[in-house]
Every structure is written in C-alpha cells, then in structure tokens.
Amino acid sequence: MSRLLTASLFMLLAISPANALPAPKITITNFDQLAHPLPMPYNEQLNAEKAVAAARTKAKKMHKLLLIDLGGNWCPDCRILGGMFDQPDLKRFMDKYYEIVTIDVGRFDKNLSIPAHYGLTDRLKGAPTLLVVDPRTDKLLNGGHVTALADARSMTPQAIADWLAQWVR
C-alpha cells in the first residue's frame, strides 16, 4: 500500500504546475497593444487530419509538445490568441516548446474527429479549445482545462503566457 501511495505522490508531483518552466515575461499589458487587424489563423480548407498528423510527427521529432488550437475566425478570443502567438515574447517561447496546429471547427460543426480522438466527444464548450498533447504517447495533457482560454478577452496577456507555460516541463 505504501508503494502505491508513494508512486501516486510521485506521479502527482511530476505533473504539477510547480514543475513547469517559468512563463516568458510579456511586455504588453493589454490586447490593444497587439498588431491590428488581429490574425485570422484558421484555414477553413485545411485537411485537419493530415495537418494534425504532420504537426504531431514534427513535435515528436523536435521534442516539443503538440498544441492543437480548435477555433474559428469568427471568434474574438481565437483571434486574440492568434495575435498573442505572434507577439515576440510569447512567440519565442512557443517556437521553442510547442508545435502549434490551428484547426477550424466552424460553429462547432467541423473537424470534430480531432477532439473526439482525445476523448472530447461532447459538443465543444467554447473557442478556442486548446489540446496540449504529448506527441510521443498521443495523450491529452490538459484534460479538464481545454477551454481555459475560451474567454481570453477577460485575461491579461501575461495570464495567457502563464497558462501556456504550465504544461511545459
């Protein structure tokens, strides 16, 4: 029994945010400071299955996490996140630790096989929905937190960076 408790404690500590890398310091303090117009990062014509497979292969090869960004160009929070990904302080961090693939989910009616593959079979609860995936195991790392940035407009730029950094070990 004590071995089981020790192993459980070890696993909990291994995945806790305390083991995460520190987030980059973001120099902007509000989203009005992002380049405008905000990007429209979702390609409606993209073959989602192929794009995710290619991004996973690249992430695995480069020893990065896979970040699957599910959203739509109609979504202001998705576009803010796209602008944040272009912000130099965060871009350097993301380029080093993540392989990002953006997948258009329409009005939650397209490319739903992608979230379903990771166990999200109910209707998506918000956009963007972010899936942080270990490309070696193809396992979702942020289950229960996939819509944490679906209200990005109410967050600070630093809070977005902090959220993204917590998954990097």
Automatic annotation (TrEMBL):
Which is one GO molecular function term here? isomerase activity
> In its keyword annotation, does this UniProt entry include Methyltransferase?
no
Q: Which organism is it from?
A: Zymomonas mobilis
UniProt KW Signal keyword: yes
Residues of the signal peptide: 1-20
Quote the protein name from its UniProt record.
Thiol-disulfide isomerase/thioredoxin
- Any Pfam family hit: Thioredoxin_7
List the keywords (alphabetical). Answer: Isomerase, Signal
The cross-references to InterPro entries, in alphabetical order and at most eight, read: Thioredoxin-like_sf
